[in-house]
Each structure stands twice: as C-alpha cells, then as structure tokens.
C-alpha cells in the first residue's frame, strides 16, 4: 500500500493558510487559484459490467492479485488511494461511484425506492464525495476483502446504463459536495470503449454531459482496460475521445500532456504485472493534482532577457498530522473535532483588536522600536519577485553542505513570455552538459525575503517501463549566507595511514546500494507509516499492530556476509596502527590540549581549566558512579554539566533546571531497573 | 553564548569636534557618533546582562568622575558607568554626547579613568576588557605616567582601540594635508601607546565607519546534535561489525531576522495620539512607557451541533482532550495511550550502503546540513573515521546512513559525504527524502517534443534552434563568476562566495532598528551596499558579455504577452473548446431543445451559464439575462441554505460570474449583481442572518470589478475597497 505517492497540503498560494514559515510573506501575489478553495476532489467511477466482473483466465500462481476481476482490482486501487490520501491529503475529498449495477443509490440513503434510484438508474454511490471517514475505509475494505459482501453489490444490470446519466450524476455530486474546489477530477475505470454502440443520440447526450463537466471545471481521467486474453483492445476513438478534453487542444504539433502516455491496462497478467499493479501505478502518477508553488515568475537570464517560469515542490518532508482538540460529549456520542478560531486581543484591556489597529514593533533594549506600515513596507522591499541570474559557476563550487531546505523545481511557462520554453530548454541543456550552475537573486513572492540560490539542471529520469520518475527542468537550491554557516568544533586532525584507507576501501566497495544510487521509493518513512497504521487501527476500532516494517534498517545479515571478513581485517589493522600512533604521540601530549592549542591562537589563558571541563563534560559520570548515586539518592550531588552529559550520552532529553535533570536521571534508572 | 564583556568608550566632545572637516556635511562628532551608536546599539539590541558598556566624555563642559577633585582630570565626564545598557541609558547618552564649548581636557587622563572603571568593575573576573578612544587628537595628550597605565592594561589583558578623526593611515590610504602640528604630535603619541599595548588597534575613523557596512557575524558555540556510534553492521549480533564513536554538529543553521511583535495603542491612550509616531523615545523627559500594549491571541473552540443556531456550538477548552483526525473521523487518544503513535527507536547512526557520487542528484537534499567528526576523547575514533573519509573520497562515493538522534525520535536517512581539508576532516551529512516525500509530477521533455499525434520532433518552436543553443552557451561561458572576484591579495577568486554574502533581511532589520533607536525622527537609511550587491550581475561582467547576450536575445525572440490577452478568452473567441476528437459539441448543444430556451437549470447552473455566454457573448441582452438568471439562482441557494450548506455553491457562482464578466470586459452586470447581493445579505433578506456568507465573499476577495480590472468599469479602487467592508 505504499506504492502511491504521498503529498501533504500544497504550499498554499491562497490567503487562508500557510505554516509559520509563510507568516511573514502573507502579502503574496494574487494568482487565479487564490479565488478557489485549494483542495482536490476525486470521484472514482467504476464500471460494473459483465465483462468487468470476469476474472482473468490466466492466473499467475503465488500472485493472488492476478486473479482479481477488473472491477475488484479497481476497488482495491480506490481503497489504497483512499488510505493514502488520508495521510497525504488530509483535507481533500474522495468518493466512489459504481455504474452499471443492478442496484441504484444516490445521496442521502435513498436506496432503490428513493428518488435517487429513479434519477440515476444503475448508478450506485458507494461512498459519497467527502473527506473520507473511518466508516468509508471500513466499507471499502469489506468490499475488497469479503467476497460475499461484494457479490451482493457487484451485480451488473441487464440493461445498459446511460453514460449521459452517469456523467450528470458525477456532475451533481461535484456541484453539491465540492463547490468551488480548484481541482475536481473524475477517475473513470472501464473496459467498454463503445457504450451505446448502436444509439447515436445516447452517445451525443453523453458528449453534451461531458461538456457540462468540462465547463464545470471537472477533468475526466480515463483508466481504460483491455483484455488481451479475450483479444480485446480498448480503442479510445470509438467514444472516449468525444468525452475527454485535453488541456492544450487543436494544435496537432502541441506537446502531448504526459498523462496521455498512459496505456490501457491489461486485465490479464502480463510480464507478471497484474492489473491491480498497473492500475495502482497509473493512478499513482495522477493522484496528486499538480499545483504550482509560484506561477509565472520572471526568470531573468541576463539584463533584458526575461522568460517566465513556474515553481513546483517535488520533494518535501511529509510529517505526521499534528494533534487536534477532540470534544467527547458526556452522553457518549461519537467524538468530534473541535474547530478553533482565534481573535486578537489587547493585553492591557483584553478588548478585541481589529487587524488595522495592529502595529509591528521590534523589541529593542528592553523597549520597542516601531515603524509605520509604509516604512516597514519600504524597509522590507528588495525589489519585485524574480529569479535573476547574476552569473555562472562550475558545480564543484557548490559544496554538498550548502543546503538548508528542500529544493524547488522550475519549469517554463509560455503564459507571460512567448518563447520561454525554448530559452529555458537551451539553458537547461547547457548547464547539464557543462556541469554548471547559475547563481541567482531569488524573491519567490511579493515581499518575500530575498535569498541567493543555485539554479542547476536536472535530467529527465525514466524507469524500466519508460515511465517518467523525475521530470527534466531546473532546480533552485537556496544557499546559506555567511550568517548561516557554522564553524566546526575544534578537533584533532589525524589522517589515517594508507593501509587503513585501503582496508576501508574494500569494505565500501562490497556494500554498494543497488545501481549505486539512492532511490527514495525504496524507503518509506517508518515513523510516518507506523503513526498512520496506529491511527487507522484506532479509528476503525481494531487491534493495534504489534510490529512495524522498517525498510530503513540496514540489512545486517547481508552486511555481515559480504563485508564481515574485511571489517575484521580493518579492525585488526586499526588496532595495530593505533598502538603505533600512541607510541609516537599519545604519551607525550594530551591530544585534546594539543589540538586546542594549535587552533586557538590568542587567549591561551585558562587552558588547563578548559581541558578539564571538556573532558568531564563530554562523557559525564560513568554508569557505575551514577547508578550508585541513584541508589544512595545522591544524584543531586553531580553538577548540572555532568547530569546533562550523562543524559545526552543515554539519548535522553537534557533540558531544564537542575531538579528537572535530577528527575530525568532518576526516571532513567527507574525504567532501567524494570528492564534489567 | 558569548562570554562576559566590558567595554568603555571614550568619546571626544571637544569644541574642535564641532568642525566640519574634509567636506563632510555633519560635524566631526556626529560623524564619529555614527560609529559609536552602531557599536552601542548593537549591545543594546542584545539586551544581555553580561555585556557591559561604559561611556566617558572627553573635553566636556562639565566634570564628573571618581577623580574629579584632581585638576588634571577636569573636563572629563563619566556619562555612563560600566553597566548593562538599555534604551533609557541610550536616550540619556544621546542628549549628553554633544559638542562642548571647550578645547580643554586630557585624553590620557580619560584613559586612566576608563582603566580604573574596568579594574573596579571587573576585578579579576573573566571579562573581555576593551577601551575604545574616539578623538580628533587636538586636545591635550599628556604622555606622563603613560607607561604605568599601559602596564596595568597589559597586566589585565585590556584591549585598546584608538580611532582618530582624519588620522593618517597608509594602509587605508589616507593622509591629511596641512595637518595641525599638535594633532600630528598627538597622533604619534597615540600610535606609540598602541604599539606598547599587547592587544591594540590604531586606525583612522573613516575606515571604521566604512566597515560598518559589512555586517558582523555572530559566532555560535558548536553544540552537538548527536553523539554516539557510527556503525557498519550490527555490533550486538555480529563480531564483524564496526563502530566508531562520533559527534555531529550543525553546519548550516539559518539565521533569522528578528521578528516583529504585534502591538496596539494602549487603552489609556487617546485617539489623538499621532499614529505615525515612533512612540519609543519622544525625548528624555518622558517615561519609558512606549504607549503600546502587546496583542495576544484568544482561542475559542466550536463543534458541530445541529440543534444550535448556525449549526455550531461553543465548547469550553476544559472539555476538550487531545487526539487526531483520521480523514474526517475524530480519534481520541487517552492520556495513558499518548505514546502509542510513537515509533520506538534507539539513538543510532547506521550505514546502510554506499552510492556513487557521479550518480547522485543534488535536489535530493532536504534539510540543514551537519558535519560528523570522531569523538574527541578517543583518537582511535578519529583515525577510524579518517579511513572512511579517505576511502569515500578515493572511490568518489557517498555513504547512506540511518540516523536516530535520540531515543524514540523518528529515523532519518542521511547522505554522508567526505570532506578533507589540510587541518580538518569530517563527513558532511544532509537529509535524504523518503518515498512519501516525493511527489510524482510529470512534465514534458525539454530536448524533444512528443506531439498529440504521437510524433517525436526535434525542431519545434518550443525547442532551441542551433543558433539559440550556441549563443546561450557562449553567453553562459562569458558570465563565469568562478574567477571574477578578488581575494585579499587581489588574486582572481570566486565572486560572491558564500562566506562573502550576507542575509539581506537580517541585516536590514538590524540596521534600521539600530538607526531608529538613536535617530527616532529620521527616515530609515538606505540598505548597506553589500546587502544588495548580488541582486544584479556585476556591471563589468555584463558589459563584457553584452555582445553575446545580444545574440541570445536575437535568437531567442522572446515576446511578452500583452496583459489583456492573457485571459482565457484570448484565442478562445470563435474557437469552441473541443474534446480530443474534434467533435462539434457546440452544434450538439445548439440542437438540444432544452438548452435552446436559454433558461438555466439550477442543477446545472455553472455549465449552462458559461454555454450561453459562449454562444452569445456579443448579444448584450443575452449576457445580461444570463447574469440575472445566475444571480437569482445564487440568491435562492443562499436563502435555502441550512447553516452554511449552500454558501460554497453561491461563492462558486459569484466567482464564475466575476471571471466571465471580466473576460468579456463587461463589469457592469456583475457589479450590479454584487451590490444587490450585499444589500440583501446585510439587510437579512436572504433567509435571515447571513453574515458568514458575506465573510466568505470578502475572504475570497470577490469584490467589484474595478478600473484596474477593466477599462469599462466605473468603480474606483476606493469604492471597491469600501464595498468589501462590512458596512452598507
């Protein structure tokens, strides 16, 4: 279930959100998405026809996935997507609509008899479009895991379902449940490339309803299924090319949107890839609606040469959800999430304050120094938003440590400057070929803090199946300023002798990762996965899982098998060389004092004292000392520094005043005693 | 944390300091004070109790010091005894440091007093002691007893800085012509004084003031972010495992500009208080009350309740407990189960494998970098780590490791890269992304075009011509910065190296707050040159590359899209959107009997509204009628909305109406509809109290179309602003 990409809330271009980081930049440029709620709504429409319910003839043994009928595979895929979106897009909506079913059901539980059934016959709204609830996950799981449960619903109707009706049903769901969403998408899974084959009027009505969806701003994403084992290949031109709209119409020379690459999935296992896997991967590639971090920013390659680019966040740390406040009604109803709202209040009189009254001031020397709004605007103004190249340097002048946040991907846009793409492409190819980066003055948004950034090229990467895994473009790496660079601590520099380096080299060569690259998709975040596993179990009122899978753990056995003997050799060599080294240096000078004296030129005063605190401070008291103190209830006799050092060495938190530290040490031993 | 410091500034206020020398606009004292205020306000800004400042006025009209009974110490005034310095003291000093009417007063006596002040305050304690003399050297400099003072200063490790108004300085390149004879003599004495002191700087003031524009870096004592074992293999299970004691320290840590706090005028202040005032320091008489009250946030919580008015009810904070949201389901976690969501880990740093440097992509770097060195207490660690560092370096490889900084902290995957300097070795580490951190957005290739019809093109308007590719290549090469800079010895060096770049916002805010603290009524000064130096390419380089740039511009042929054409309507007119198949949907729509009536079906309102406009956008009455229909449908939605259930749809209708009318350049019908909406909402004519709906209109910025949106509009910016207020 970890095959799908995860995504948290977008870096909102909207006014009403944003993390603490964005606070200073609240006067963002208005772009058109700001008018809409920046949310995504996905409605899965799954065909439940006779042929969609047929299980494949050829089944790969040991791969139960290959025995699924297309409908069940699609449901499984929707189930995976739902779980994933709860993690990655907690505010986005999802719904599942079955069509071609014998039963009919629309909103508000009007099953069979209600008007919903009459309105949209053979459309069964399995879960309504909404932020998924635990009950939706449960229902869906029952469908995919309990065949009996599923077979009650998964019965195809004898008469053909009207596609116009299906599309209008989707229209109504989007209109009522997801009004004003910036992204509304209908994921259509079917193997029928020619519905209403003999009824032109019915096909035309469907085309009209499809146009309605287009005008409503709903995108139809088609997931076609072929049946090679039955000699059937899905042909879009029969019907679906009248239904699906492209973002860039009519120009035959226009670059095709990449989503068109997606081939129809095959219902029978081909090359060991099951339909489910194929569906999962094509859904994964479209699961995240593409949202720009900034749109149409001026990219000035030289004075007088401007093009426009858009910025995207392709890599961002996904964090577990923060805690919410929950209201548990006394009459044991279901718990509810309490929605907080804050009002600003003057500290002296506790009256509420309007935004216009607020002035900003800086704390300064015990008082405040304030500026008017105009002054502040002028002070903070460093020019309009821009990426302005001021020159180029070779990539080896970009040290690996020069990083403090995720990098931003940029891609050209023709919306402000026609010709942007070709210029961008020329620059990208040049930088890629000669291993150069541009140094740029970078202001992402109006009033944003200016930074210097390295603009470097990223090549397109595709996997074995030819699917793009990393797009081609340029990347922006915000660079640290002198103020941000920390000096290293004082150390003794002792270079290892060549024999030792040679011994280590063998080890390194034994333990290369596959293809000698780091592939993020191989490493799900273990704490994040655990967090949601637990949360899901709690939400569904199930037993908690007892162990987590952690793919980030080293493969101990493999390391031992492949490098073990070499490590032992290295260890022996190290002991020998260290003994030699000690004979030459060790006894004469205290190494720490030696290193310190070399580096710190002035102020050799108090050197002896410094060495002493450093030695004591680093390791802290030994376990024995501390344990005996604990037993005598005499931990407090240690100094704060010793306590802290002890706690740090034990991986415990070492903050607070002395009583806190004493408590922490006591607690450490208390828990230790139990396990000992 | 910085150590304890005690600094005494001796400021020459003699009458000669009132002169304006060498064409400067301000008096010599005001000029000198630029330096003094910069240093003192830097100290004030830290508000640190252990950074002490004393200020001694030299050649002042009055006399006040521990030695003021002695005649040779006259015209010396201790304005500020050594102590912590805050705004009130600064305010006072500002009024005291003015040009006096006397040329009398001895510089060395002032130095003696300063030495005395330090000795008395600092005793034998751990202080960084420093005396700064700022003078024009035109008063008396009595060298008698000097050796005794120097002896004491050296014994107590006091640093001396002498900064002279227009002193000669060959290194800086300044020589004063026609120098006053006394001044020349005095300069020589002060120079000798500095030579005799063990730590001393002697310089001309102009240089010191120049250097104010170069920000000072704060040094931070390195604090380890991890201490433990770097392991290869599992030492608990296998004999063959390797474990090296290491320490990890931050390498990059963003220095953030000070943040402003929010304030309002105090409740007892009247409305007549001038709003533009910088209430901080309106003269020394006023109490240090700055008239501002800080702003706090008060939070209230609501839950859904169908019985309550508005569908929500307030709940007390005490009634709430912590939990999480799983989708839209609330999950309560009891106090005792608080830790179940924590993934249990043990503090560790384990290598999981090695990768090739050449195949590594720089965009994978996620967070602040750190560095890893061997544990200081055992040189064996340093040697072992050094062999890993060198092995990685020689093999052009990086290590990938799993790091848990503390027990039960989440694991992170790190890239470890070798760093070898002549006297320093370490591993740099940067965080790598997990599977969940990668968003698979797809973009078309840049070096070829795959068309809708499936052809692959290498010549296309979106691809660079050979001419463009060649000219860009030449231009990029000509803009090389790697040797454009100069090092200290004027050799070629990297231009804009990272250690020469300063955080513009951080130093800008520091600059203006310090300035305002002293000069309350003055405009904030322009930013230091160095803060904006790298906003543009260096002028010389641009000039040099102009020819190649011109070639690029010609080959690129980039054209700006005129603003009005950017709308959706651009290129849409006369060309109906078509599905992939080119099916004429317009004709189908036109032949649909239901749609021919031009009556908008409320269930399908948005599409049908757009379709009517698409067919008949030139027909004024048709457009007006469509807007009217949609308006009435929207009113109905609001009117029949249970709580806020219909608001979303209404907001969408307004948005679409606004966009379409803007595209058609017909602001009138939309603006009329919005005026009507506001009236009805605020007069509660749409099913009662609908303030929240109006709030949504404001929050979504769905205001009137004004003149800046459309030339057809009669609405001014002022009117548009007024419209979005909550008043009628």
Name some characteristics of this structure.
heterodimer, A: 676 residues, alpha/beta, Rossmann fold, Ku70, Chain: A, Domain 2, Ku70, Chain: A, domain 4, six-stranded mixed beta sheet, 17 helices, 34% helix, disordered N terminus, B: 728 residues, alpha+beta, 4 domains, seven-stranded mixed beta barrel
List the helices and strands and how they pair.
The complex is a heterodimer of chains A (676) and B (728).
Chain A: E1 37-47, H1 70-88, E2 93-99, H2 115-119, E3 123-130, H3 134-145, H4 147-153, H5 163-177, E4 181-190, H6 200-216, E5 218-226, E6 265-266, H7 275-287, E7 294-302, E8 305-312, E9 324-327, E10 336-337, E11 339-346, E12 359-364, E13 367-370, H8 373-380, E14 386-394, E15 408-413, E16 417-418, H9 420-434, E17 436-443, E18 451-458, E19 461-462, E20 468-470, E21 473-478, H10 498-510, H11 526-539, H12 556-586, H13 591-599, H14 607-619, H15 623-631, H16 640-649, H17 658-675
Parallel strand pairs in A: 1-2, 1-4, 4-5, 5-6, 7-14
Antiparallel strand pairs in A: 2-3, 7-8, 8-15, 9-10, 12-13, 14-17, 15-21, 17-18, 18-21, 19-20
Helix pairs in contact in A: 1-3, 1-7, 3-4, 5-6, 10-12, 14-16, 16-17
Chain B: E1 5-12, H1 28-46, E2 51-58, E3 76-84, H2 87-96, H3 107-122, E4 128-135, H4 146-155, E5 158-164, H5 181-196, E6 200-204, H6 205-211, E7 226-232, E8 242-250, E9 261-265, E10 292-304, E11 312-315, E12 320-326, E13 329-332, E14 348-356, E15 370-374, H7 379-395, E16 397-404, E17 412-421, E18 424-431, E19 449-450, E20 456-457, H8 466-478, E21 485-486, E22 492-493, H9 504-518, H10 529-532, H11 539-556, E23 559-560, H12 585-591, H13 593-596, H14 605-615, H15 620-639, H16 647-663, H17 667-682, H18 691-699, H19 717-723
Parallel strand pairs in B: 1-2, 1-4, 4-5, 5-6, 7-14
Antiparallel strand pairs in B: 2-3, 7-8, 8-15, 9-10, 10-11, 12-13, 14-16, 15-18, 16-17, 17-18, 19-20, 21-22
Helix pairs in contact in B: 1-9, 3-4, 8-11, 14-15, 15-16, 15-17, 16-17
